[in-house]
Amino acid sequence: MSQFDEVIPRLNTNSEKWDGAEALFGRKDIIPMWVADMDFRAPKPVLDAFRKRVDHGVFGYTKCEDGMTKAILNWNKTRHGFDVDSDAILYNAAVVPSISLAIRALTKPSEKVLMHSPIYPPFFKVTGDETKREVVLSPLKHTGTRFEIDFADMEQKLAQNDIQLFLLCNPQNPGGISWKKEELTQLVELCARYNVPIVSDEIHADLVMKNHVHTPLVKVAPYYKEQIITLMAPTKTFNLAALKVSYLIIDNPDYRAKFRELQQYVHAPGINEFGQIALEAAYNEGAEWLDELRDYIYENFQYVKAELNTHCPEIGVTELEATYLMWLDARALKKDEATLYQDIIDAGCGVQMGSGFGAVADKFIRLNIACPRETLKKGVAALIAGIQK
Length: 389
Hints:
The protein has 389 residues and is of the alpha/beta class. It has two domains: 3-43 and 287-388, Aspartate Aminotransferase, domain 1, CATH 3.90.1150.10; 58-285, Type I PLP-dependent aspartate aminotransferase-like (Major domain) (Aspartate Aminotransferase, domain 2, 3-Layer(aba) Sandwich), CATH 3.40.640. The chain has helices at 21-25, 44-56, 66-80, 95-106, 122-131, 151-160, 181-193, 217-220, 235-238, 253-265, 273-285, 287-311, 337-347, 373-388; strands at 31-32, 89-92, 112-117, 134-139, 141-142, 147-148, 163-169, 198-201, 228-232, 246-250, 316-317, 325-329, 349-350, 352-353, 364-368. The strands form four sheets. Strands 2-10-9-8-7-3-4 form a seven-stranded mixed beta sheet, sandwiched between helices. Strands 11-12-15-14 form a four-stranded antiparallel beta sheet, covered by helices on one side. The protein has a two-stranded parallel sheet with strand order 1-13. Strand 11 and strand 12 (325-329) form a beta hairpin. The longest helix has 25 residues, at 287-311. The model has no long low-confidence stretch (mean pLDDT 96).
């Protein structure tokens, strides 16, 4: 039995995923498979480090420890062959606020920001809604089992729109794609041709499945590293989202100065004490836990794929190269997206529909499969019942 088979009740723990399900879906008795957190306990070394700190009992103001930086350097070198300069690291609470910082630091209101679509919905919020930048989308091409970058469309958008910043999701959310070295190389070449800085959200870097490798963007294009801002965190990897700990890798000293100035303006530099403890413990002692997790998630993917192929062959399944988020193609169904969504909810499964992820995503479904097999089977049975209704 895997440690990830344990069903841990999460109701009444202030869980957005579980306690927030009634407000979102209109019912309590639902299997939530939407927001991207996992129903797994964090690694034992992290919990042990928490207990030791709690037993100390004093929680005054905290400074950033060198141990956290050393853990980041070692983790990225060991897992990704990524040599990070310690001077390039800045800390921030979470990746989405860091995207907002990047937009504010490197662009001005009404200027244009390019990104692929479909993409993680907060990308839209921190560009158009919050920072008043103009969003330009370059739709990805769905080949049936994978997304690919439409480089011709991307270059056209760069050439015609005076783009000031490109936002990349690497690995790609919601498509579960681990971009290939060749794809990333061509992408950087395009941005370099038009002198466009790149923000690379690599929060899912560690959650790459078998036979796939995460390639940090800076690693494929060191010549362009001063125009690349890399965003990383242990939070998705080790299920630590509530602790608000992430970091930015910014090789350009002028960009770092702009980021620090914005952080100081809102008095929000640094990481809270338990975020620091979690990052250091997870990166130093969590590798074995992560390797088992990735195997478990991929087995979950294979289970869901087999069930859908058997009971709903009209649903297309995008191959899972990275993340724990499946991307399902329901465009062959005759009912519209709103009806399909409600049918799935009525059957007892809570999902996210594709239209929230931008262009070319209508009638797709994003499904979070990072849960114990017992929970997964119940959720998938409900999903299938909703699709078949």
